[in-house]
Design goal:
This protein folds into two domains: 102 residues, no CATH class; 65 residues, no CATH class. It is globular. Helix 5 runs antiparallel to helix 6. It contains ten helices and no strands. It is mostly helical.
């Protein structure tokens, strides 16, 4: 993971100075293992669990697990990001009465991760914040804001031009705005990216979503011509 934030770099140096490098490496390896476990758990629930009630039960359990992981590795953006992703997924699955609360919690987690490393995990922070801002209802119901969404998503594809999620969610946002040609451009690019053999369930599921959305954008373009 790239870490360019000066404050984080200084903190990391102080940590390395205080502890043997082998201990730091072991801690980072353990954190990476926990993050991968959260990634795979999320992908299984989203793409392989079909019953909505089972999905909600499992994503709620995974959210609690993610909170413990993030608490165990303070000062790291990656666990916070996955805690936020899982929390936002619970917002998407939950009832309308609780969804906004989970969305607000997810936003707070992403903003916390943003202060640590805004570029972590292929621009996951601006991608996730941008997605929340265009999918959550606007005032007076929620905090949705298309201007903020565009700003975050444009930033995401700028710093991660080959990030599949950055391209997909920006393409989805553009589709929602009626910008079908531009949407198709980013969706096509997302499909051209190499497969992720380390995340096969997510890769296959996301590509299916991208193909479906691209087909919709192309139909819109065809009907307008």
């Amino acid at each position: 993971m790239k870490t360019s934030n000066l404050a984080l770099s200084t903190a990391l140096f102080a940590y390395c100075f205080a502890w043997p490098l082998s201990a730091v490496a072991a801690d980072n390896a353990a954190m990476q293992s926990d993050v991968v476990r959260l990634e795979h758990g999320w992908a299984h629930i989203v793409y392989q669990v079909k019953d909505q009630s089972a999905q909600l039960d499992q994503i709620d359990a995974l959210r609690k697990d993610a909170a413990q992981v993030a608490q165990h590795y303070p000062g790291h953006a990656e666990p916070l990001i996955w805690q936020g992703i899982i929390t936002s997924e619970e917002a998407a699955i939950a009832s309308v009465f609780t969804a906004l609360g989970w969305a607000k919690d997810a936003r707070a987690l992403f903003e916390k991760a943003e202060k640590i490393d805004p570029n972590a995990l292929d621009a996951a922070v601006p991608t996730s914040l941008g997605t929340l801002y265009y999918r959550v209802p606007g005032f007076p119901v929620g905090f949705g804001d298309n201007d903020k969404a565009r700003q975050y998503l444009e930033h995401a594809v700028a710093i991660a031009p080959d990030g599949m999620d950055a391209n997909y969610f920006y393409g989805d946002f553009l589709f929602q705005q009626g910008e079908y040609a531009k949407s198709a451009k980013y969706l096509k690019h997302a499909l051209e990216l190499p497969a992720h053999p380390d995340r096969p369930v997510w890769d296959a599921g996301r590509r299916a979503e991208i193909r479906a959305l691209l087909a919709k954008a192309q139909r819109k373009l065809a009907s307008a011509s």
